[in-house]
Amino acid sequence: xxxxxxxxxxxxxxSSPDLVGGFQGFQRAINMEKExxxxxxxxSGLKGRGGAKYPTGKKLMQSAEHHDKEKYIIxxxxxxxxxxxxxxxxxxxxxxGVFEGMLIAAFAINASHGILYLREEYKYMxxxxxxxxxxxxxxxxxxxxxxxxxxxxxxxxxxxxxxxICGEETSLIESMEGKPGRPRIKPPYTLEKGLFSKPxxxxxxxxxxxxxxxxxxxxxxxxxxxxxxxxxxKLISLCGNVNKPGAYEVPFGMTxxxxxxxxxxxxxxxxxxxxxxxxxxxxxxxxxxxxxxxxSYEDLNEIGVPMGSGAIIVVDSDNDILDYLDAVQAFFKxxxxxxxxxxxxxxxxxxxxxxxLREGKYSQEDTINIEKIAKTMKYASFCGLGQSAPAALLSAxxxxxxxxxxxxx
Amino acid sequence: xxxxxxxxxxxxxxxxxxxxxxxxxxxxxxQKLNRYNYIPQEVSQYLAKYMQxxxxxxxxxxxFYAEFSETPRGExxxxxxxxxxxxxxNNTETIKLLESLLSIKxxxxxxxxxxxxxxxxxxxxxxISPAMRINGKTxxxxxxxxxxxxxxxxxx
Lengths: 409, 156
What we know:
The structure holds two protein chains of two kinds.
Chain A lengths: L23 H6 L4 H11 L11 H9 L7 E6 L8 H8 L1 H15 L3 E6 L7 H13 L15 E6 L9 H8 L23 E5 H13 L1 H4 L10 E8 L5 E6 L4 H8 L9 E6 L6 E2 L10 H6 L8 E6 L4 H15 L5 H19 L4 H17 L3 H5 L2 H9 L1 H4 L5
Parallel strand pairs in A: 1-2, 1-4, 2-3, 5-9
Antiparallel strand pairs in A: 5-6, 7-8, 7-9
Chain B lengths: L2 H14 L6 H11 L7 H11 L3 H10 L11 E6 L2 H5 L2 H12 L12 E6 L11 E3 L2 E3 L4 H11 L2
Parallel strand pairs in B: 1-2
Antiparallel strand pairs in B: 1-3, 3-4
Helix pairs in contact in B: 1-2, 3-4, 6-7
């Protein structure tokens, strides 16, 4: 099973700043011109690994244009997308790789403060993470004039309090300011006015890990993997009804079938593949006819599926699609922040209709309203949460209406 | 509120500072002072006054985040994942077993106030699904035998 790669995960369980190989990426970065560091990230083609897929190099470039004395870098570890646990693995097995990525970015854009926003559910890691930061301080990898450069930078940890929406960067910032995590209107963008109205660069955990791996090895090594439009590798979270769930680093371009059957060792009890959901629960269903689609930004885009966080939730033939959709909508109802009406009320109404559909006792009106509400949410919600909340349902109605509308009266 | 509680709350605030940005970490510590895992209204009112915030500014944070509660809960909080991955890994069976082991329904607290049973969104343990958390500790690959043992270990 040598289909997985160890590029980002190279230092799993062995990284330490004083081991040979530790912080090589940062050591290399401080001997480079800042523009060249950013240029390498641009050339690597790295996109935001939290799910927003904004080009990381471009973001660094835009961030470098702000010359405020106080400038924040936030590592978003509010990993709450169902089916996703890649950041958990990175923080557990190679926290230094994550912190090194933050350091490299701080050096490249002249940031003054770093913060790791850790979700409450991952609080069991906090002692180990604090120890890692202390270790870095003792080696002058954090603090004043780090390794005799002009960079003075430290990293602290902010522990969340349980809210999926805080994975959205402006909500995350609101939460760090002591408020409920409700999204802000953009612009202004966080790069210009973020935490405490200061320029703020927010990236996902996996994005920072990948930055350190790219600078350590050179972007040329990274782009040897993957496809032309999706260079490199990605850490995926494979779960659901597969025999071997787990976080795996794969090159872009591997097909969904290979991921499920070769890496995940197939479906439990020899059952057949019913559907999958990629990127968490915010995307449309991936049906059997899509199973040979390569896992890359461009190929998934062809079938209308966002890559999102890189979660792959596999569902087998033993499951009922309505039961699954109920879990999806219940999640969004719970996590809707309540700011805008389409999302707050829409999820509630969809759940009501779903419950009637599950009983097989629904009205003609329900069959019309379900799509009407879902589409209103898609087009009129304030942020990505509400806009993508009905995606799975809409795709199920389009592709398998016979499983949605089953009368039992 | 008794004097001891007031002193404890003041000590916590002194450690962080009165700025609003410290509200969440302060609330975490304050909730821990309560045996039944909640922040009573008189405490949040006192906190608002002491930090020079509006009562509503404190209350909206308590009500927004899953970690905080304004009503008493059990000493041990069991959060069962009800997201899609656990759903397809038969968490309905887990929930039934827990309800029968504790003789309460989801969302309820046992009479002796030892356990509360709550639903939880995904907490990133999908590779060991079905999963639950008790007081923040994750347990996965739950089956009849392991569930029984885990619950027993938390009984008084």
